[in-house]
Amino acid sequence: MTTHASDTLPASAPDATRIEAIIRGRMGDPFELLGPHKTKEGVMGLTVFAPDAAEVVAITPEGSEIAPLSRINPEGVFWGQMPGGFDFGTPYRLRMKAGSHEWERDDPYRFTPVLGEMDEYLVAEGRHEEIWKRLGAHPVTHEGVEGVSFAVWAPNARRVSVVGHFNAWDGRRHPLRRRFGAGLWELFVPNLAVGDLYKFEIVGAHGDLQPLKADPMSFRQEQPPSTGSIVHGMHRHEWQDAAWMESRSKGTLHDKPVSIYEVHLGSWRRGAEGEILDYDTIGGLLVDYLQDMNFTHVEFMPVSEHPFTGSWGYQPVGLFAPTSRYGTPEQFAAMVDRLHQAGIGVIVDWVPAHFPTDAHGLANFDGTALYEHADPRQGFHQDWNTLIYNFGRNEVANFLRCSGTFWLDKYHIDALRVDAVASMLYLDYSRNDGEWIPNQYGGRENLDAIEFLKGTNHQVQLRTPGAATIAEESTAFPGVSRPVDQGGLGFDFKWNMGWMHDSLSYIQNDPVYRKYNHHQMTFSIHYAWSENFVLPISHDEVVHGKGSLLNKMPGDRWQKFANLRAYLGFMWTHPGKKLLFMGCEFGQEREWNHDVSLDWHLLEDEKHKGAQNLVRDLNRLYRDEPALHALDCDPAGFEWVDGGDNERSIFAFLRKADSGTRPALIISNMTPVVREDYRIGVPEGGDWTELLNTDAEIYGGSGVGNSGRIACRQEECHGRSVSLALTLPPLATIILVPDR
Predict the structure, then answer these.
(1) CATH classification number, 16-106, choose in 3.30.530.20, 2.60.40.10, 3.40.50.261, 2.120.10.80
(2) Which residues are in coiled coils (predicted)?
């Protein structure tokens, strides 16, 4: 076989302009030149770009020679006329040689598209609700050949290529087919497999070569600081949680106990030498701990891949990829499965509000502001130096919505806690006059974001019955947890940031001044059922100089722990579901640091161990007593007995369920003074029992309280005909129930 380079091309060969476009990486649609084509004379020709080869021969899949190709350009463009009978769809391979080295490969430019017209239509409409099945990198068998199908959305790009070790990171070798209808680019690359590293090389709208981009739809990425995407496909975990998923699909969480333990996977526990643990190890430890502590759910701070560890995951670039810091997608799935089999629900933080400016991410993806707004008054977040998604663009809203439902569907996540919702709802969020653009009606509401959130919540309810969404929303925006068909945003729950700020402000006061701030503990009841609330003591309250929860408490060491226990008792009995950040349950003393483990050695101290014992028992009681959870979202579940005793800083209220369930009486004494013979009106006579006392010795308290059965007297108090005479322990919350 003879190969040659010639300035005079064969008459039937491709023209020099298109050859130059290939070797300079400027060919917008490689299928115009590469692969089989009919010549002007009506015969079939084959064009191949193989810069590493000295000789190229087209062969049958069985290895028989079809025709040699001639080098028509010194940089590695080969062309040859095919014999009669060779046509589009004829299977062939390429045999190549350079020196003594010979190899064979399939030609990616002989294959038909993997994406169909319906994919294009649905992507353009923003209604491709399982977009992760089509875009990204998927190991497939296409037309009888194993390989990987790549697809990416980049409508303004002039050229998109997939690059990796398999092609020496040379963007000229595997440019993608352009699908003009929806701005999609795709290519089936034969002989690639799971584990291959790749990125997209993009020539932008103005002809500028962009930084190499990670795949927005990748299922696995390299461990930071590396930024490549890894061919993986959908995880291959075989689920064993069918009973849990069946149960989840029936009903909602509104009338169930929901006690959430918020966890940062990298700092909850570490190895003996401070090393980060993997999903398998963390999962086993978490199951044991959560079961022992009686939490119903665990909430993971964002597990989506993110480049900067110090962002704690709140600046993600891989919205479909569990972070590789702790292992593989299979290990993550197995951890979720293990938690489910232990009866523990799994919540993940999901971040659709903004994304980082890292060059390998979504920023300026195809040389234009594609995922973000071009105008910084709409597209740049000043607080976090991040970019804001363009929620009004169909394809962007579709991408984000699918990233949320993906975790619920494919990883069996039970709820999404949606981060920074307030920043999404308002165009002027954290902006001064002149720094934002009003909506079409002149208002400050982000109408596109509102529609996006409604659409996402609707899809969650439609696709994954029983799964929930929870909004971190800090304003008085109406109807956050009201159904969409009733004019709301459609979330199942909203974080009660007002309760958190008020109650923490109150508890940080010296007890002698608390009588002047009594309203901070009672005001939340005025709006407690305006939304379906979660009471959050989250990571945000124990970082950035705020100190630990324990060290917010005033007084000496004894009083700090007593205040902490009284506060937790009040929180667990207040209407609303519960969320507690890791470490708060045992009184972590230092502020949280994401780079080191929690201080588990503190449990050797009886005060810290006592606080942990209290949270364990509060969770058990909260689960076992319907009065404490069944009507969390219904005003019928709460009644003040005495909410106005500001002089003594005492709060007394009832929690109730249905008429056949015993009520619970809660009294919090927020001063260090023991109150003897404290009379309190109760709704029924007979004997009552103190179920829990945060001042009990087992919790590190002084042991003041009410033992045995406490008999009611026919003595009117608080507008009731019967009452109890109690001893109120100092800085403590007690819970009593009637004996029936």
Answers:
(1) 2.60.40.10
(2) none
Angle at 669 between CA 664 and CA 673, to 5 degrees: 145
349 SS3 class: strand
Tell me, what amino acid is at 436? Answer: W
419 classed as catalytic: yes
Identical fold, 241-495 and 496-535+551-581+602-739: no
Q: Nearest to residue 647, comparing CAs of 459, 505, 516, 501?
A: 516
Has residue 2 got a pLDDT over 50?
Answer: no
CA–CA distances in Å: residue 491 to residues 58, 476, 488, 540: 59, 15, 8, 21
Spatial separation of the C-alpha atoms in residues 461 and 5, rounded to whole Å: 63
Q: Measured at the alpha carbon of residue 571, what is the angle toward residues 623 and 737, in degrees to the nearest 5?
A: 55
Nearest CA to 393 out of 155, 637, 126 is that of: 126
Q: Domains of the chain: which residue ranges?
A: 16-106, 117-231, 241-495, 496-535+551-581+602-739
User: Up-side HSE of residue 20: CA atoms within 13 Å toward CB?
Assistant: 5
Q: How many CB atoms lie within 10 A of CB 87?
A: 10
Q: Which of 14-18, 295-299, 523-527, 671-675 has the lowest mean pLDDT?
A: 14-18
Q: Which two tokens stand for residue 31?
A: 């299928």
CATH fourth-level superfamily of 117-231: Immunoglobulins (2.60.40.10)
Q: Element (H or E) spanning 381, and its range?
A: strand 380-381
Burial 125-149 (b: 16+ CB within 10 A, else e): ebebbebbebbbbbbeebeebebbb
**Catalytic residue, candidates 107, 419, 617, 632:** 419
E strand or H helix at 137:
strand 136-142
pLDDT band at 3 (very low <50, low <70, confident <90, very high): very low
**CATH class for the region spanning 496-535+551-581+602-739:** mainly beta
Beta-carbon contacts of 430 under 8 Å, excluding residues fewer than 6 positions away, are: 381, 382, 383, 423
* Marked catalytic residue, from 448, 472, 531, 690: 472
d(CA 134, CA 151): 7
Active site residue 409: no
| Helix 557-573 and helix 497-507, axial crossing angle in degrees, nearest 10 | 150
CB neighbours of 659 closer than 8 A, spacing ≥ 6? none
Of 144-153, 177-186, 277-286, 511-520, give the lowest mean pLDDT range.
177-186
CATH of domain 241-495: 3.20.20.80
Q: Are 293 and 615 in contact (CB under 8 A)?
A: yes
